[in-house]
Amino acid sequence: MRRQNLLAAAGIAVLAGGFQAAANAGATTSGGAKAGAIPATIDSSASPSRVFSASRGGVTFRYRVRGAGPVSVQIRLYRRSGNSLIRTWKRHPKDGGWHTIHWDGSAHGKAQPDGHYVFRLEGRMADGSRVGRASQGNAGRNSFTLHKFIFPVRGSHSYGDGFGAPRAGHIHEGQDVLASCGTPLLAARGGTVKHNAYQSAAGNYIVITMQDTGLDAVYAHLKHPSHHPEGSRVYTGQRIGVVGQTGDATACHLHFELWSSPGWYSGGHPFDPAPDHHAWDRYS
Ligand SMILES: [Zn+2]
């Protein structure tokens, strides 16, 4: 319809004659008739290639559609294992510039499992025809690896007492990680600060309810009180303090606990974090 109108307008201009008519005809050719002849293309990429969920920024998917008129775009995120569809976004980009989508690693309030993920984008013109891909055959640009957790001790370390080790009147409810005092400590997973306090046994400690997992993580014997106040939001990989020896600690180390939902001294139970620790340590 639009093309016909433009051609009609050009026809009238030509009939009117003169320089202005030639200019109008040129505009009609590039803006109307030729647009359909130039194949529209899509460029896209995902970054970073390794993503920690509940981190600041998460993963960013960038795309642009060039040489097309009105286009509708569907972006689907798949987990490669099982080719399962995780999320769908629908967009109507109005220009040929870059557009972005952010994903934090959760869907329907649940942290998605570790693994390889890929964004797949499909664009359609107003008439329903498919838009071609500029980056076809380069699907690696749209894929990334997702991890739910990062190992919290960022320096050389070794493993000390484990879960269940005998203690006077109770058992050890976590895993000790020995590292020099001052070694940076990161949030293994982002979430909300449940407690930030000092007690004679734990020294400076912080409890973080880890987003979309139902789990609480406890970090104890920090050198200084963590600067994240109770109720505040922290992100995966964000610094929460440094290794210390406060409280009843006899060496510089992190005492780390994991609690099942609904969490630390609020109905949950501590469980052995060692298998998780070793897994996180391998890829972090
Ligand atoms: Zn301990």
What do these coordinates show?
- This protein is mainly beta and 284 residues long.
- It has 3 domains: 2-33; 41-147, Immunoglobulin-like (Sandwich), CATH 2.60.40.2550; 158-283, Distorted Sandwich (Glucose Permease (Domain IIA)).
- Helix content is 14%, strand content 40%.
- The chain has 3 helices and 23 strands.
- The chain has helices at 2-16, 19-33, 274-283; strands at 41-47, 50-52, 59-66, 71-79, 84-91, 99-103, 106-107, 110-111, 115-125, 132-133, 143-147, 158-159, 166-167, 170-171, 175-178, 184-186, 191-199, 203-210, 216-222, 233-234, 239-242, 253-259, 270-271.
- The strands form 6 sheets. Strands 12, 15, 17, 18, 19, 20, 22 and 23 form an 8-stranded antiparallel beta sheet that branches.
- The model is unreliable at 1-37 (pLDDT under 50).
- Bound molecules: zinc ion.
- The site of zinc ion has 5 residues, from loops.
Distance between the termini: 57 Å
Contiguous runs where pLDDT drops below 50 for at least 5 residues: 1-37
| Radius of gyration from the alpha-carbon trace, in angstroms | 28 Å
CATH architecture of the largest domain: Distorted Sandwich
Secondary-structure element order, as H and E? HHEEEEEEEEEEEEEEEEEEEEEEEH
Biggest β-sheet strands, sense, barrel: 8 strands, antiparallel
Task: Sum up the overall morphology in one term.
Answer: elongated
**Estimated helix fraction:** 10-25%
Strand content: 35-45%
Number of helices: 3
- Give the integer mean of the pLDDT values: 86
Number of strands: 23
What is CATH's topology name of the largest domain? Glucose Permease (Domain IIA)
Q: Quick one: CATH class of the largest domain? A: Mainly Beta
Number of domains: 3
CATH superfamily of the largest domain: Glucose Permease (Domain IIA)
The small-molecule ligands in this entry are: zinc ion
Instruction: Tell me the structural class.
Output: mainly beta
